[in-house]
Design brief:
Structural class: mainly alpha
Oligomer: single chain
Strand order of the largest sheet: 1-2
Helix content: 40-55%
Order of helices and strands: HHHHHHHHEEHHHHHH
């Protein structure tokens, strides 16, 4: 795959631009078989958008003003809303962007007081989608802030190269990089590069090789990850964990003693996407192994390895990863013969509440927050409908 084509794929993943139906591996989106589902998806998005509009705070934020990333996700969802929904969202978008702008800090980050790296990355993606010239300096400053968060010289060397929640308002247990924060940071940084933010001589530069090495150390693949917990067992091999040495899915006993960290769905999609943003070849054994794990564990009933915990973030990352041209052919399971996009759309439509929102019964990672989960679901639907 050429560098130019690969970067086109990155742009598609970052901003959800439509793929040609044949390249996406599905039936033409205007075919008779898809027309009804397209209408259902547009109706679900319409109802979701109205829910977001009706639950925006007077200051322009959504849900929790101390976490501007939630507002950033709502802006991304509303900003890519299909015209067919007929929902006028400009007023909500204007108010939302004014709130995000108000959170910009002198250090370049966009946050209230905590989780500064995560909030900055999501808000940067939202500002890039808007592409308002008035935000150019704000985006450039955020770009620098994100680059500065990459770790080096950590006491545990396996943590070098990643990115974490950021330096402000973080408890000691979070003062290290993890795969999720690394993912959102790499996505925002690559999107900045696509938008030609910054200069080649900017200091510091992100060390992409170190970032790839950190992501590699989060994967259950002994061939490339030398850490002792990396598992070659069929249920774990190729999948990912939260950070080197820890998995939210717990551990499994290894034959002959010892323990391995269990792979799980959200972080395996995060690992695969991180490799995409870092331009690791699709033929690389790490990418191939991650794809195999995802294909073997494909389900819409749970977040593999975690049950209902993080389910909607799983849908969000799934749609983002599989909307890359051709990826659905590589990862599609025999359990969804008509394609992942249609299956995911049907699932999300069934899960939508009467008021247009989505929410998880499991509160882990804030997924009982209807605003956050509605944004995840709308973003997943918007990607899925472009891949029918």
């Amino acid at each position: 795959m050429t560098r130019r084509l690969f970067l086109v794929f990155v742009a598609l993943v970052s901003f959800g631009r439509p793929l040609p139906a044949k390249a996406a591996g599905g039936t033409p989106r205007n075919s008779e078989g898809n027309e009804s589902l397209q209408q259902e998806v547009c109706l679900a998005l319409q109802r979701g958008a109205l829910f977001l509009k009706n639950h925006q705070s007077p200051n322009g934020s959504w849900s929790n003003a101390s976490q501007p990333a939630i507002s950033g996700l709502a802006l991304l969802a509303l900003g890519q809303l299909p015209k067919e929904t007929g929902v006028p969202a400009e007023e909500a978008l204007e108010k939302g962007y004014e709130f995000v702008r108000s959170q910009a800090k002198s250090d370049g980050g966009i946050y209230a007081y905590g989780l500064s790296n995560y909030n900055t990355a999501i808000c940067t993606l939202a500002l890039l989608l808007r592409a308002d010239p008035m935000d150019a300096q704000r985006i450039k400053s955020a770009h620098r802030f994100l680059r500065e968060q990459q770790t080096s010289n950590m006491a545990r060397s396996e943590l070098n190269g990643g990115l974490g929640y950021g330096p402000t308002g973080v408890s000691p247990k979070r003062q290290h990089p993890d795969l999720d924060n690394t993912l959102v940071s790499l996505e925002a940084l690559r999107a900045c590069e696509m938008a030609r933010v910054g200069e080649k001589n900017d200091v510091p530069q992100l060390d992409w090789s170190a970032a790839i090495a950190f992501v590699t150390r989060c994967q259950n693949l002994p061939e490339t990850n030398p850490l002792p917990w990396a598992s070659a067992q069929s249920g774990d091999r190729g999948g990912f964990v939260y950070y080197p040495g820890f998995s939210n899915a717990g551990t499994t006993e290894l034959p002959g003693g010892g323990k391995a960290l269990r792979s799980y769905g959200t972080m395996t999609y995060a690992g695969l996407l991180s490799f995409v943003y870092a331009e690791v070849s699709p033929q690389d054994q790490r990418v191939v192994a991650a794809s195999e794990w995802l294909r073997n564990h494909f389900t819409l009933e749970e977040n593999p390895g975690l049950g209902q915990e993080g389910l909607y973030y799983y849908y969000h990352l799934m749609a983002k990863a599989l909307s890359i041209s051709g990826a659905n052919n590589n990862l599609e399971s025999g359990l969804v013969p008509k394609g992942w996009a249609r299956a995911l759309a049907h699932k999300l439509i069934l899960l939508q509440a009467g008021d247009g929102s989505w929410a998880n019964s499991s509160g882990r990672w804030m997924e009982t927050d209807a605003t956050l989960v509605t944004a995840y679901s709308m973003l997943a639907l918007e990607r899925a409908r472009k891949s029918f």
